[in-house]
């Protein structure tokens, strides 16, 4: 039964940092290798594993760090991020100054952006390049120090650059959200920049998959009362829903289109 097989894989991913394909093939010799590879695809879509050469890494043993390197975060909770990104793209407006941060969910939004005359500002070189490939959007890349793990620009030069930029709509991604700490991240200079953006923007749209709920990382960059719209992939705990309502923040649960 595939349920028994997937339960076994789920248990291994909960207890070990790596599950090899060779071990999977030995454990289920009567199941085709293609089917077993599809099982790993399933757990990657669920955000419980990251497929690598020769097997899969358990997301549990990656996400226990304060914050994850960009390459790892890009492959976590992929399906949830695509749902959120697809919905968030509906909030783009031509003729507005739009800020896009370096969050991995933002990267998932790029395929849903129409080839129109948007004006974007971003701290992510990768995002800037992908936006340029669309065609018509104008793209401003913030200057400053490039962090190799976060793949984003921050620091004093970036803050100075943003001082001269007007922002109508800001799309931000947190690494954690809790009632006590608000929206948090693990990199001080990046959170300092996000704090500035959240203060300057006319409208703040927060993109957050449900794995970030009740997580508190070292640095807070804003609270619910600074956010206009919070887009998630699953219902939030009632205490956060009530806090968002009290703060005037709209909570939207993105669903399959």
Task: Describe the 3D structure.
It is a single chain. This protein is α/β, with parallel strands linked by helices and 257 residues long. It folds into 2 domains: 2-64, Arc Repressor Mutant, subunit A (Orthogonal Bundle); 72-253, Rossmann fold, CATH 3.40.50. Helices cover 39% and strands 22% of the residues. The chain contains 11 helices and 15 strands. The chain has helices spanning 2-15, 21-27, 33-45, 60-63, 70-74, 78-88, 104-109, 125-134, 156-163, 188-200, 238-247; strands at residues 18-20, 49-52, 55-58, 97-100, 119-122, 138-141, 145-147, 152-154, 169-172, 176-178, 182-185, 203-207, 219-222, 229-232, 250-253. A 7-stranded parallel β-sheet has the order 6-5-4-9-12-14-15, with helices on both faces. Strand 10 (176-178) and strand 11 form a beta hairpin. It is globular and about 65 Å long. The two termini are 31 Å apart.
Short description:
The chain is of the alpha/beta class.
Could you give the topology of this structure?
Layout: H1 2-15, E1 18-20, H2 21-27, H3 33-45, E2 49-52, E3 55-58, H4 60-63, H5 70-74, H6 78-88, E4 97-100, H7 104-109, E5 119-122, H8 125-134, E6 138-141, E7 145-147, E8 152-154, H9 156-163, E9 169-172, E10 176-178, E11 182-185, H10 188-200, E12 203-207, E13 219-222, E14 229-232, H11 238-247, E15 250-253
Parallel strand pairs: 4-5, 4-9, 5-6, 9-12, 12-14, 14-15
Antiparallel strand pairs: 1-3, 2-3, 7-8, 10-11, 11-13
Count of the separate structural domains: 2
Radius of gyration: 19 Å
What's the β-strand tally? 15
N→C terminal distance: 31 Å
Mean pLDDT: 88
Task: Tally the helices.
Answer: 11
Poorly predicted residue ranges: none
């Amino acid at each position: 039964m595939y349920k028994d097989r997937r339960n076994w894989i789920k248990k291994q991913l909960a207890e070990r940092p790596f599950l090899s394909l060779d071990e999977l093939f030995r454990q289920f010799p009567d199941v085709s290798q293609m089917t077993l590879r599809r099982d790993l695809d399933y757990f990657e879509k669920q955000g419980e594993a990251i497929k690598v050469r020769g097997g899969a890494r358990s997301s549990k043993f990656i996400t226990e760090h304060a914050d994850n390197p960009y390459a790892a975060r890009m492959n976590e909770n992929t399906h949830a991020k695509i749902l959120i990104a697809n919905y968030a793209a509906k909030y783009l407006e031509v003729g507005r100054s739009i800020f896009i941060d370096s969050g991995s969910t933002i990267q998932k939004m790029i395929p849903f952006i129409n080839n129109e005359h948007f004006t974007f500002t971003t701290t992510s070189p990768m995002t800037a390049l992908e936006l340029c490939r669309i065609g018509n959007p104008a793209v401003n890349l913030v200057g400053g120090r490039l962090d190799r793990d976060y793949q984003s620009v921050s620091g004093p030069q970036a803050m100075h650059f943003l001082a001269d930029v007007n922002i109508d709509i800001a799309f931000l991604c947190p690494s954690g959200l809790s009632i006590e700490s608000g929206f948090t991240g693990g990199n001080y200079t990046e959170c300092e920049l996000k704090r500035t953006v959240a203060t300057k923007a006319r409208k703040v749209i927060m993109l957050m998959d449900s794995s970030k709920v009740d997580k508190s990382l070292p640095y807070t960059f804003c609270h619910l009362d600074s956010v206009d719209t919070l887009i998630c992939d699953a219902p939030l705990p009632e205490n956060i829903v009530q806090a968002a309502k009290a703060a005037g923040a709209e909570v939207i649960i993105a669903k399959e289109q």
